[in-house]
Amino acid sequence: MPFKFDFDVANRILLCELDGHVTDEVMKDFYKISAEHMAQIDPKAGIIDLSAVDSFKVSAKTARDLAHSAPTISDPERIRVIVAPSDHVFGMARLFQMTGERTRPNLHVVRTMAEAWAILGVQAPHFELLAVQ
């Protein structure tokens, strides 16, 4: 499975983890499905963890197109974090961040989950599996 969703009920954080080989199609599918989960549970924050990605073949065009689309979390004030340890994935995440800055002013791109937890001010999250896609 290329992605899964976990939810921390106490902190209302949706954690989306992608793994393996991520292509344009996988990313587009992920974006659509994550938007559906966000609408259903209305989290106060969301994290996309790309730490387990082996191959990231997402084009700059797809990153820009997704950044121009409606945000998966409708409230622009809610915090979003993308965890992207590798240089290439980090660069693509920054492209997405800069392109979508107007509609996602609280989007942060970091290298580690520790940085994500620091931004969110969470010390002991407890996640339960929501869905595997």
Task: Give the SSE map.
Layout: E1 3-8, E2 13-23, H1 24-41, E3 45-57, H2 60-68, E4 79-83, H3 87-99, E5 107-110, H4 113-120, E6 128-132
Helix pairs in contact: 2-3
Could you tell me the mean pLDDT? 94
Q: Nearest-angstrom radius of gyration? A: 13 Å
Strand order of the largest sheet: 5-4-3-2-1-6
What is the 3D form?
A: globular
Structural classification:
alpha/beta
Described by strand count, sense and barrel closure, the largest sheet is: 6 strands, mixed
Total E-strand runs = 6
Fraction of residues in H or I helices: 25-40%
Beta-strand proportion? 25-35%
Order of helices and strands: EEHEHEHEHE
Terminal Cα span: 6 Å
SS summary, helix count: 4
Low-confidence stretches: none
Describe the 3D structure.
- The protein has helices spanning 24-41, 60-68, 87-99, 113-120; strands spanning 3-8, 13-23, 45-57, 79-83, 107-110, 128-132.
- With 133 residues, the chain is α/β, with parallel strands linked by helices.
- A six-stranded mixed sheet has the order 5-4-3-2-1-6, sandwiched between helices.
- Strand 1 (3-8) and strand 2 form a beta hairpin.
- The longest helix has 18 residues, at 24-41.
- The radius of gyration is 13 Å and the shape is globular.
- The model has no long low-confidence stretch (mean pLDDT 94).
